[in-house]
Design a protein that fits this description.
This protein has 292 residues and is of the alpha/beta class. Helix content is 34%, strand content 24%. It has 11 helices and 15 strands. It has a 6-stranded parallel sheet. It has a 4-stranded antiparallel sheet with strand order 8-9-11-10. Helix 9 links the parallel strand 12 and strand 13. The radius of gyration is 19 Å and the shape is globular.
Length: 292
């Protein structure tokens, strides 16, 4: 195989109805696909939830024949397993922001044990952080609070009612204790430093090289839209982000980063074209800047 492709899923590769509307130009609006051009890849509580376009489906299936594609998501194991992503089954997938590596769909116990040890050595415990977070929130603006695979927590919030500066103040408390906080849409993640997508991608790459699936010089290509993707994007040989999402709001840049010209679900197709072009050319680091 010519490359390892680590791609975030939600709002990068797959899109809810709401995320499809992340269009910021008139051309984006004009290019929104009709229902006949959409493929549902996730059903939750009996209702369609996430989609790709028919063009993205075809490109993703073709890409998996020429490169190693590793879905890399902050979703829990159970949340990831709801997705019927074109190109499956996956030899490797990364869930829970790097806290779990799935091998043929099964969490790797050895990897998870190492993450748990790193968390214990790296700062405050999940219980301690959760207790402090509980003291800082209330039901007037927090719609739900959940723990993901006993690794980190996230809130679903009413953004209009959330106190100004909450994420920044909460992050300030966390960083001194080996954790961090960030917002992605209506979700606020509280994440230990030990749980990191880039470390999991590096571990998967090592395994693939050791198994002879990847050549040692094969590049890593990556895509993602949120702050939790930033270390993965910067560690890759080349990376791309959509022109929407948290990293767009932050105007996050990196020397090896490209940015799509499209936003919303059209960006998902553009990212796949970018991957396919670099795999075909056998180059991981040549294109930098905004795609037109």
């Amino acid at each position: 195989m010519t490359a390892l492709i680590a791609t975030d899923l939600d709002r990068t590769m797959i899109y809810s109805r709401g995320a499809m509307e992340l269009a910021v130009t008139e051309s984006d609006v004009a290019e929104r696909p009709g229902d006949e051009d959409l493929l549902c890849v996730e059903v939750y509580d009996g209702k369609p939830l996430s989609y790709v376009t028919s063009a993205a489906e075809a490109m993703l299936r073709k890409l998996t024949a020429s490169a190693v594609v590793v879905p890399t998501t902050t979703r829990t194991v159970a949340q990831f397993q709801r997705i019927d992503l074109p190109g499956a089954p996956w030899r490797y997938a990364i869930t829970t922001n790097g806290g779990n590596i799935l091998v043929d769909g099964v969490p790797d116990a050895g990897w998870r044990s190492g993450v748990d040890i790193a968390m214990a050595d790296g700062g405050a415990s999940l219980v301690e952080v959760g207790a402090e977070l509980s003291r800082r929130i209330d039901d007037s603006w927090v719609r739900s609070s959940r723990v993901a695979d006993e690794l980190f927590s996230y809130l679903v919030v009413d953004l209009d009612a959330m106190p100004a500066g909450f994420v920044e103040e909460w992050n300030d408390w966390c960083v001194d204790r080996g954790w961090g906080a960030s917002r992605q849409g209506r979700k606020i993640y509280t994440m230990p430093d030990a749980v990191c997508k880039s470390r999991a991608v590096a571990a998967v790459r090592t395994r693939l090289v050791d198994d002879g699936v990847l050549e040692p010089e094969a590049p890593v290509l990556a895509a993602g839209d949120g702050a939790l993707d930033a270390t993965m994007l910067s560690a890759a040989d080349a990376a791309i982000r959509p022109r929407h999402g948290e990293l767009e709001t932050l105007d996050w840049q990196h020397p090896t980063l490209s940015v799509t010209g499209s936003s919303g679900i059209a960006a998902g197709e553009e990212i796949l074209r970018w991957f396919a072009d670099r795999v075909a050319r056998g180059a991981g680091t040549t294109a930098v800047g905004s795609l037109l």
